[in-house]
Amino acid sequence: MTTLKSRLKEDLTTAMKARDELASSTLRLTLTAIAKEEVSGKTARELSDDEVQKVIAKEAKKRREAAEAFAQGGRAEQAEREKAEGELLDEYLPKQLSDDELGVIVASAVEEAKAGGAEGPRAMGAVMKIVNPKVAGRADGGRVAAAVKKLLAG
Question: What pTM was computed for the model?
Answer without folding.
Answer: 0.75
